[in-house]
């Protein structure tokens, strides 16, 4: 069934792109780039990336009438809270730009020392989620401190990091309300996840004092990623997460 949907979607990519871009512009005051279109039971899932900052990745769903192969351009939608959360995470990423850069630098130092890697950069637009890079993605679980920023975004999304900082109170945000999920992989094929590398990364995150506030989960996988579910998690994955997250105040 989904194969038929993607066949119809691919034949009508220009129509879908136009409809999805209009949806994001009208509903979320956001210009987006369409990266990938995947079939689903009732239509197509369209993965997008915001243009400029705040920067984030998300998706929308466009229904397709299978009987007459019609693209229902006026009925684009997304799962509740998905796009809103992506926008909030993007704002947080912009406000904490220096801290996230330090986190990236820290991870890359460990990667170089132990021959680890993130997802392929070309795969980021499809595998990424919310505020992301090749090593981690950010989810806002408690959005009450970001609701004001989100409302301001709908009015005017073109603001500086300093202006966005004024719309949220960083000192009042609880770290448990922000999830930062780090996913790394062994760079070589057929190599088990390195326990020493995993422990070293945990130590570095725990010791760091200039990385973003949040609740950190860390996973180290072997080199294989199941593209059907876009995940590297399997029985040999090394994980630090619930209930033992690293919490950075």
What does this structure look like?
The chain folds into two domains: 78 residues, Nuclear Transport Factor 2, Chain: A; 164 residues, no CATH class. The N and C termini lie far apart (47 Å). Helix 3 packs across helix 6 and helix 4 runs antiparallel to helix 8. 35% of the residues are buried. The chain is of the alpha+beta class. It has eight helices and eleven strands. Strands 5, 6, 7, 8, 9, 10 and 11 form a seven-stranded mixed beta sheet that branches.
Please outline the helices and strands.
Layout: H1 2-11, H2 13-28, E1 32-40, E2 43-50, E3 57-65, E4 70-71, H3 82-95, H4 97-114, E5 116-117, H5 124-127, E6 131-132, E7 136-140, H6 147-155, H7 161-165, E8 178-186, H8 195-207, E9 214-221, E10 238-240, E11 246-248
Parallel strand pairs: 8-9
Antiparallel strand pairs: 1-2, 2-3, 3-4, 5-8, 6-7, 7-8, 9-10, 9-11
């Amino acid at each position: 069934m989904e194969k038929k949907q993607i066949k119809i979607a691919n034949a009508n990519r220009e129509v879908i792109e136009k409809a999805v871009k209009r949806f994001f512009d009208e509903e979320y005051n956001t210009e987006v780039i369409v990266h990938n279109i995947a079939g689903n039971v009732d239509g197509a899932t369209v993965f997008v990336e915001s243009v400029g900052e705040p920067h984030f990745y998300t998706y929308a769903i466009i229904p397709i009438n299978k009987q007459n192969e019609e693209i229902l351009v006026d009925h684009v939608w997304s799962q509740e809270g998905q796009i809103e959360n992506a926008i909030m995470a993007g704002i947080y990423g912009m406000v904490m730009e220096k801290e996230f850069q330090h986190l990236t630098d820290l991870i890359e130092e460990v990667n170089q020392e132990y021959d680890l890697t993130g997802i392929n950069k070309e795969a980021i637009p499809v595998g990424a989620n919310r505020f992301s890079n090749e090593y981690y993605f950010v989810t806002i679980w408690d959005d009450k401190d970001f609701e004001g920023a989100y409302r301001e975004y709908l009015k005017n999304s073109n603001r500086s990091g300093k202006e966005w900082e004024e719309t949220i109170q960083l000192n009042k945000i609880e770290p448990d309300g922000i999830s930062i999920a780090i996913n790394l992989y062994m760079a070589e094929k057929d190599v088990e996840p390195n326990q020493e590398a995993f422990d070293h990364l945990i130590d570095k995150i725990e010791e760091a004092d200039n990385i973003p506030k949040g609740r950190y989960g860390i996973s180290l996988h072997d080199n294989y990623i199941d593209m059907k579910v876009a995940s590297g998690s399997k029985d040999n994955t090394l994980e630090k997460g619930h209930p033992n997250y690293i919490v950075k105040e």
